[in-house]
Amino acid sequence: MGKTTLAKQVYDAADVKKHFKVRAWITVTQSFKLGDLLKDMVEQLHNAIRRPVPQGINNMNNNHLKTIIKDFLQKRRSVKGMPLAIVAVSGVLSTKDKRRIDEWDMVGHSLGA
């Protein structure tokens, strides 16, 4: 079984769903665009709580999108205060080439690390 298949099975598991009411499945390709990834995350998070996606999302810069995600996650904490972002980050990091430190740094900086 591959890493993505295993991660998806965990993501879809009933026990996980009951602990994480707000979740987002983000697919990261070898040549992902950060802006597209952030927009997808904003859309999924807002759809998960049945709230409208912020207007003008397609015209927002990456910093604005990051702020929206950060504010969203700070308002909704999961089990034992762990932010939902940890689940998303683990999925992103597991797909990255561990030898490409620059890509790891970009992901970390994008999430405010």
Automatic annotation (TrEMBL):
Domain NB-ARC: 1-79
Entry-linked Pfam families: NB-ARC
Stretches of the chain forming a coiled coil according to its record: none
InterPro entries xrefs: NB-ARC, P-loop_NTPase
A molecular function (GO) term: ADP binding
Origin superkingdom: Eukaryota
Protein name: NB-ARC domain-containing protein
UniProt organism field: Rubus argutus (Southern blackberry)
